[in-house]
Amino acid sequence: MADPESPVAAGDAPPPPHAEGPHAPDPIAAFREALERASKREPVEATAVVLATADAEGRPSARVVLLKGVDDRGFVFYTNLGSRKARQLAENPRAALCVYWESIEQQVRVEGPVERVADEEADAYFASRPRMSQIGAWASRQSEPLDSRARLLGRAAAAEARFLGRPVPRPPFWGGYRILPERIEFWWNQLHRLHDRVLYTREGDGWAVRRLYP
Asked: Under a CB-based contact definition with an 8 Å cutoff, are residues 63 and 69 in contact?
């Protein structure tokens, strides 16, 4: 993470919106606003998040995925349904994600149960992907052993030939998941390690909010 004496922490960026006043009432809206700010400043991909899952015995694993949707229902990502993450979610349908935007020195953590995205929603997103990314989804047997890169490229070429001259449909083994947030925590870098942390926990249709020590 950035040095706590950095220019951003020292005053080039505005303080947290609730540093001295009321907390934002809606953490989903607050996340989307932060993502919009980060998207204007991050050098590569502001939607890259670390996704953590665990198997039935609680053994965790984590990887970077791209966040493809955020609304009042939750946080959406897509994957091969035979992947390690998908197998873990079948055994233990809960997940956590974490994103840190160095450019605005802010972190957000999300935790909650997971549900599958509806087929219609997954179809619409898949249709928006670049064609070669669609081909890649057909070619990959994600997380399974691969004896050579040539084998992968051969599968991609075969998929490209299969769908030549026509739209590429979403594979039946590829879809999306939505994390239904129960906890959303915002963290802002501040001077001298006296960071700001604000935790939202789901209570019925609303949110309870409290500060945490850094």
From this structure: no
Task: Name the active-site residue from 87, 94, 193, 211.
Answer: 193
Separation between Cα atoms, residue 118 and residue 94, nearest integer Å: 18
Grouping H, G, I as helix, E, B as strand and the rest as coil, residue 37 is helix
Residue 193 appears among annotated catalytic residues:
yes
Domains of the chain: 7-130+172-212 (2.30.110.10)
CA-wise closest residue to 190 among 211, 167, 165, 166 = 211
Residue-wise DSSP of 93-143? -EEEEEEEETTTTEEEEEEEEEEEPPHHHHHHHHHHS-HHHHHHHHH--TT
C-alpha–C-alpha distance, residues 179 and 113, integer Å = 6
pLDDT tens digits for range 89-129: 999 999 999 999 999 999 999 999 999 999 999 999 999 99
Q: What is the CA radius of gyration of the chain?
A: 20
Q: What is the pTM assigned to this prediction?
A: 0.89
CB atoms closer than 10 angstroms to residue 77? 21
- Helices assigned H by DSSP within 140-198: 149-162
What the block records as the tokens of 33 is 């606003």
Which is nearest to 28 in space by CA: 192, 183, 190? 183
Tell me which of 11-25, 75-89, 95-109, 126-140 is least confident.
Answer: 11-25
Q: Is the dihedral of CA 202, 205, 209, 214 positive or negative?
A: positive
Phi, psi at residue 85, to the nearest 5°? -65, -40
